Amino acid sequence: MKKILVVVLAVSFFWSCKEEKTAPSVADTMKTYTIAQMMDNESIGGGSFSPDKSKLLISSNRSGIYNMYTVATDDGEIMPITQSDSSSVFAISYFPNDERMLFRMDGNGDEIYHIYLREKDGSHKDLTPFEGSRANFSGWTDDKKSFLFSSNKRDPRFSDLYEMDLETFTPKMLYENDEGYFVGGLSKDKKYLSLIKPINTNDADLFLYNREDKSLTQINKNQSANSPEDYSPDGSSLYYTTDDGGEFAQLMKYNIANKTSKKVLAKDWDIMGSYFTETGKYRVTYINEDAKNTIEVMDVASGENIDLPSFDNMDITNVSFSRDENSMRFYAGGSHTPSNLYIYDLENKEQTKLTDVLNDEIQAQDLVNAEVIRYPSFDGLEIPAIYYKPHQASAENKVPALVWVHGGPGGQSRQGFSSFIQYMVNHGYAVLAVNNRGSSGYGKTFYQMDDLNHGDKDLKDCVEGKNWLASQSEIDADKIGIIGGSYGGYMTMAALTYTPEEFNVGVNLFGVTNWIRTLRSIPPWWEAQKEALYLELGDPNSADSVRLRKISPLFHTDKVTKPLIVLQGSKDPRVLQVESDEIVAGVRKNGVPVEYVLFDDEGHGFVKKENQITAYSKVLEFLDIHLKGEKVTPIKDGDI
Predict the structure, then answer these.
(1) Whole-number Å distance between alpha carbons of 283 and 303
(2) Residue 618 scores a pLDDT above 90
(3) Rg (CA), the chain
(4) End-to-end alpha carbon distance in the chain
(5) What predicted TM-score, i.e. pTM, was given to this entire model?
(6) How much of the chain is in helix, strand and coil states, percent to nearest 5?
(7) d(CA 113, CA 603)
């Protein structure tokens, strides 16, 4: 009896030990990836249906830069259409009734876009060969015998509206824009054209222009943000968004005949856009819900939203419909996974995944799902932010961190996938993407809080983001840096200049450092919004120049004491290369460690994989040395 009891106890002890044994955590099994592996996550976009719906036309960077491809809608077979190895190619659309294609290219990031025709035999032609002028596709006409585009070929400052006949490919001007409007949509009968006149960076007046009698009618009654969206299927109304009377943009319907407006849809977030499908069967609406897209597709006949496919831990980010309105292509992804392309049959409710863009060398569980957090700023204002916490971070294993600042001013960090952020997080850096005051998406009051105040309260919001990070048990409070591009690059330099003891390092991606020069040298095609920019940032040709000089880091480089890395594209038309050249030279005079990475074939942002790999590996190497404090062997080409 005693022996049996011992055996029972032993078996009981064995099973209890098995029950108490915990499964390995993600941190235990996680792999660390090279930048080449991480940047080999494919990025795709677009999805125009071919006339017979057998294919979708997309853009993809699988070749190293963006090129045009087709994707079969039955099995996802991808076929290359263009093989550019210099300028990126971005797909626009199949022709409505045959398999010719439109695409656009610029000159290595100079933003001077041209529209190209790709014939069925593979040859291509520049349809807008206007020297030094931009052309942007504006949609197909209702009869599908021509397409609309805007171009500043007549006057570099303003974009006129043109119609391109598909037989002769001869452009015809439909509207000459002498008053500095933004040109909106044309009605199906080509009678009405919506026009936008910026007042400031938030507000704009909305007009409806009658091409027959040349009359111009203002739609909005009060100063507010207004944006035209689409005409009703019967052409009797214009749908538009406005934040008049509230904090967020709501959808309105303007009756053209009686000149009255009524509210159609309102949310507790901005409605970013709304349009009707080909015959008006569905109305698609995008809502910017806490920094991610929420999409509603309403059946117009019933007034009810249709059920869209659902996914665990992913969101549908973009949709488009076939001309017969029986098929929908959509993208689904999240902060932890790049978006894949799907096809959805609306009749039988079947969906097909067409792509698998995550590099097969990467374990999906190793990527981090971001969390939306909020923290109080110095004055009690609640600041939203997106937090990426490394799997390996814990109270016992504290990690360094970075405050990430978006572009703008007026941009927004969103809950989308970033290979660069995931690369840094995978290598043990926490990232807090702050949406400081002045960011879009959180109401017009919040959006306008940084007007004529850049480098002050918006910077203090970033500092408080750093303080929030420092209060987290998994963060090494003595190792926090700041990183950002464009306006975010400015904030990086402002932080190192005006709060030199707050951040340990700075990563400046093509950031503004001299506001006077930047505002005086904006591209000519920004003329329509120049005065609005001056109202937010300051007029460099007035007494505002005193304040602009005061907030421009270039004139105060002697205050910078922390290590800095600067990255820049020489073709950038927004933030000129001289901005980065001069800030690097100025900071180096202090004896501060400064690295400079310049690309002669990039513009405002880096789109070529080879350059992304070089840029982001340099950033990590810099952070490992100057933030982690590690002794690092410089990365060689064969290691990345």
Answers:
(1) 9
(2) yes
(3) 26
(4) 67
(5) 0.93
(6) 20, 35, 45
(7) 13
